[in-house]
Amino acid sequence: MNVTRPMLAAAAAVAALVLTGCGGSDGGSKEASVPTTATGSLEHLAAEVKCEPNMQTDADEIRQAICKNAAGKFILATFATDRGQREWINGAKDYGGHYLVGRKWVAVGETSTVTALRKTLGGDIEEGTDHSAHVSGDPSEGATHSGH
Predict the structure, then answer these.
(1) Computed from CA positions of residues 38, 106, 104, 89, in that sequence, does the dihedral angle turn out positive or negative?
(2) What are phi and psi of 114, to 5 degrees?
(3) Contact of 117 with 71, CB cutoff 8 Å
(4) How many helices (H) and strands (E) does the chain have?
(5) Among residues 127, 117, 83, which one has the least CA distance to residue 103?
(6) Could you read off the pLDDT of 121-130 as tens digits, one per residue?
(7) CB atoms within 10 A of CB 130
């Protein structure tokens, strides 16, 4: 349980930052165009965004499919519990990416794709960890650690 509490605290902090960040001084008109967050089964959500889901995982806790529509290719997943969803997102964010998050569902894809999906499904956009700062642009840097 000690592992879960820090994860939940971090998720709450991220959610608070996302929510307060969206209420900027001139961002009101943009937020007004976002519809109420959709709910429903994976098939219902897929139908809302006009894609035929290619099921990858169909389990009690998570259902996950690959979808493609005019906005692009994306992963659509639904969850049995809010906690299961948040744990999945927290783990997935370590790999980067762009996440459109609703209640017990998430869509993962390129920025343009999740932005387009948001116009239909509502939800909040979350960003995964950006690892580009951890990559050195100097290929000789690795040679200093090779023992030569």
Answers:
(1) negative
(2) -70, -30
(3) yes
(4) 5, 6
(5) 83
(6) 999 999 988 7
(7) 8
User: Is residue 141 classed exposed, middle or buried when 0-12, 13-18 and 19+ CB atoms within 10 A define those classes?
Assistant: exposed
Contacts of 41 (CB under 8 A, 6+ apart): 63, 78
Q: Is 49 helix (H, G, I), strand (E, B) or coil?
A: coil
DSSP state of 140: G
Q: How far is CA 30 from the centre of its chain?
A: 20
- Average confidence (pLDDT) over 8-16: 34
Residue 122 pLDDT: 97
pLDDT at 19 over 60: no
- Residue-range domain boundaries for the chain: 36-130
- Taking the C-alpha atoms of residue 76 and residue 107, their distance in angstroms, rounded to an integer, is 4
This model's pTM is above 0.85: no
